[in-house]
């Protein structure tokens, strides 16, 4: 039976997930706390970490520590500079940033990735999920829904590039801080309204006067009693997700994508991709934990 070999931390903006991993990568135990970088005051990152993993350290001694996510951003514990694409597993492992801990231990922070050019792009945390999903080995197109969705192309053992779409954040801004939100009412899930919006989003640039014009229909349709107030939010969500999928299809064609993650948002993307006629596969859970294990192995952290 294999024993504990690594503590892996998926440390984001709003949450901290910790995994105790065996030397074959299996998850032996896990902890979670609402201790993302936005919740931690006064730079108490070390104290937060120690509180979460104290029982593991007591039982197993000091184990190698590795983390990824917004903890490595400018607003986090320490900034781990972005690694430019195309990026490989070895490149990520070689660019770990080390944070010395007061007890003699060290925390290793995975860098994010960047695409340079006229319109630069960045990711932080998703690169670790992609490693865990085998993107470096298998290649392919990966879609990661979220507040800032990512469409990532991997091939030849590297992440070649990616594009970020602010779909989730734009929806939240329009819903909470624009005239569109005044006509919205809470209601049950409305798949028909969502798919109607997806159809509009898919065709917005080609036939319907562009995305900005299409979005305004989330006001005019209810004004003209052609869309119930409870259907406005799913309709608007459909427009934005549909437009994102159309942009992804324009960039990558109709190639099969891997849809990353789970939960209601990913379910909506699955509906929208089916509506668009795009083939996709789903992914297993705990990709970040697996990715952290692989990166730690490539960096030689276990066994030190």
TrEMBL record:
Alphabetically ordered keywords of this record: Kinase, Transferase
Q: Does the keyword Transferase apply?
A: yes
| BP-aspect Gene Ontology terms | D-galactonate catabolic process
Q: Which SUPFAM superfamilies match?
A: Actin-like ATPase domain
One GO molecular function term of this record is: 2-dehydro-3-deoxygalactonokinase activity
Q: Which Pfam families match?
A: DGOK
Matches recorded under InterPro entries:
ATPase_NBD, DGOK, DGOK_C, DGOK_N
The identity of this protein, by name, is: 2-keto-3-deoxygalactonate kinase
Tell me the organism.
Arboricoccus pini
């Amino acid at each position: 039976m294999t024993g504990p070999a690594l503590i892996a931390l998926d440390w984001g903006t709003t949450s901290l997930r910790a995994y105790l991993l065996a030397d074959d990568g299996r998850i032996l135990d896990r902890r979670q706390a609402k201790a993302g970088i936005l919740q931690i005051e006064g730079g108490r990152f070390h104290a937060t970490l120690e509180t979460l993993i104290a029982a593991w350290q007591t039982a197993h001694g000091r184990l190698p520590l590795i983390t990824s996510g917004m903890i490595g951003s400018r607003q986090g514990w320490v900034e781990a500079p972005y690694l430019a694409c195309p990026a490989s597993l070895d490149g990520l492992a070689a660019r770990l940033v080390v944070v010395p801990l007061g007890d003699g231990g060290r925390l290793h922070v995975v860098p994010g990735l960047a695409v340079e050019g006229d319109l630069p792009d960045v990711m932080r945390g998703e690169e670790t999920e992609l490693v865990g999903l085998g993107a470096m080995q298998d290649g392919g197109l990966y879609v990661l829904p979220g507040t800032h969705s990512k469409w990532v192309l991997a091939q030849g053992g590297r992440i070649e590039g990616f594009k970020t779409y602010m779909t989730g954040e734009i929806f939240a801004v329009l819903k909470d801080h624009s005239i569109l939100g005044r006509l919205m009412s809470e209601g049950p899930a409305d798949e028909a309204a969502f798919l109607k919006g997806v159809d509009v989003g898919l065709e917005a640039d080609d036939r319907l006067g562009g995305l900005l014009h299409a979005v305004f229909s989330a006001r005019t349709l209810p004004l003209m009693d052609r869309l119930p107030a409870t259907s406005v939010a799913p309709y608007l969500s459909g427009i934005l997700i549909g437009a994102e999928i159309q942009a992804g299809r324009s960039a990558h064609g109709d190639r099969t994508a891997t849809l990353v993650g789970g939960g209601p948002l990913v379910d909506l993307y699955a509906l929208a991709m089916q509506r668009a006629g795009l083939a996709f596969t789903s992914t297993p859970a705990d990709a970040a934990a697996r990715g952290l294990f692989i990166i730690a192995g490539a960096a030689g952290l276990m066994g030190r």
